[in-house]
Specification:
Blueprint: E1 3-6, E2 14-16, E3 30-40, H1 42-50, E4 60-61, E5 65-73, E6 85-88, E7 91-92, H2 98-101, E8 112-113, E9 125-129, E10 134-135, H3 142-145, H4 153-162, E11 170-174, H5 178-189, E12 193-198, H6 201-209, E13 214-217, H7 223-234, E14 238-243, H8 248-256, E15 258-266, H9 279-284, E16 288-291, H10 300-308, E17 318-323, H11 327-335, E18 341-345
Parallel strand pairs: 11-12, 11-14, 12-13, 14-15, 15-16, 17-18
Antiparallel strand pairs: 1-2, 1-4, 3-5, 3-9, 3-18, 5-6, 6-10, 7-8
Helix pairs in contact: 4-5
Length: about 350
């Protein structure tokens, strides 16, 4: 099969036409899928450009935002058939560890991350366990629906399960990239009042279209100005802040923008440390700080339904589509910070 292969850091992906195709094993609950589309994520860029370690050493196929059509199934699979449209979550869980058994599959002790632990979605086919995939309605195009696998679901988990946004809550989002913009629309869907903060005017414009009741251009303000603008807009500080960049500076700004008793949710990843943390303020003002990773498997049916009925949108967020043979051009778009989400079309 054709695949875009990651072989070494700071080098282009290599297009190979003879990469080994996955094979169905009978009676093992597997589904072989023809991948129609796979989104390009900053996590992929971290592996490719910045040397973030993958779970499996290269050569490796990156990509974890996949949607496609069923090509073949194991003999013991009854709930899928050839031709079905399906969504493939970015991570599969074991179902038996402590976290899975207590409803937190997103932090499974034995999780498998596509495009890191095993080959991912920048290829023509992939084989996955039937227990981990979901039917995707025909009225959700695969070329846009693929981003539900991470860009939509990760913010859903951050907003609903971690941030616990309630109707009327002021919720500020730092960073309006692919994840941050979807945090904005998930806050709106939950009845919250989203405030978007970014340095790029076009991204703030998109945030406004997705439901932000106020936008703040961080390019024109220092730390105190950003925090002051949020406190003024919210009458004393946000109830919840989401940091969707992974930068110690914006993490600090997000924390300082909260009212007493507020909650900070870290959605963006950073290997850096924040040394100037005020533990006394956390204690005395009863603040909450928490991380948010991926999404629980049990939440995907609800997310798909929210996309189907238009409460959450995907089409405006896919701002570029490239065939698999031009995947490196698609990555260049992300490197330049252009658009929101680029999608690779894997069936040429």
């Amino acid at each position: 099969m054709r695949a875009a292969v990651f072989e070494e850091v700071k080098s282009p992906l290599i297009i190979k036409d003879d990469y080994p195709s996955p094979k169905i094993n009978e009676l093992q609950g597997q589904v072989l899928i023809n991948i129609v589309a796979c989104g390009v994520c900053h996590t992929d860029l971290g592996f490719l450009d910045h040397g973030v370690p993958t779970g499996k050493s290269p050569p490796l196929i990156l990509g974890h935002e996949m949607a496609g059509r069923v090509h073949d199934i194991s003999g013991d699979v009854a709930n899928f058939k050839e031709g079905d449209q399906v969504l493939i979550p970015a991570v599969t869980s074991c179902g038996t560890c402590f976290h899975c058994r207590t409803g937190r599959e997103n932090i499974c002790s034995n999780q498998v991350f596509f495009g890191s632990n095993v080959d991912g979605g920048f290829a023509e086919q992939i084989m996955v366990p039937a227990k981990d995939i979901f039917h995707l309605p025909a009225d959700i195009p695969l070329e846009e629906g693929c981003i539900i696998a991470d860009a939509i679901s990760t913010p859903y988990h951050a907003v609903k399960n971690r941030g616990q946004v309630r109707p009327g809550d002021w919720a500020v989002v730092f960073g309006c990239g692919g994840i941050g913009l979807n945090v904005v629309q998930n806050i709106k869907a939950a009845g919250g009042l989203p405030i978007a903060v970014d340095i790029v005017p076009k991204k703030l414009d998109i945030a406004k279209k997705l439901g932000a009741v106020k936008t703040i251009s961080a390019k024109e303000l220092d730390d105190r100005g950003i925090v002051g603008a949020i406190r003024k807009a919210t009458g004393g500080g946000a109830d919840i802040a989401f940091e969707a960049i992974g930068n110690p500076m914006t993490f600090k700004q997000a924390f300082n923008s909260l009212r007493t008793g507020g909650r900070l949710v870290a959605v963006g990843y950073s290997p850096k440390r924040w040394d100037g943390f005020d533990i006394g303020r956390v204690m005395f003002r009863e603040m909450e700080i928490m991380g948010s990773l991926g999404c629980r498997t049990v939440d995907y049916p609800r997310i798909i339904e929210l996309v189907k009925n238009g409460t959450l949108v995907v089409k405006p967020l896919v701002t570029g589509k490239y065939p698999l043979s031009e995947i490196n051009e698609g990555f260049d778009v992300m490197r330049r910070g252009e658009g929101v989400r680029t999608v690779i079309l894997c069936q040429e």
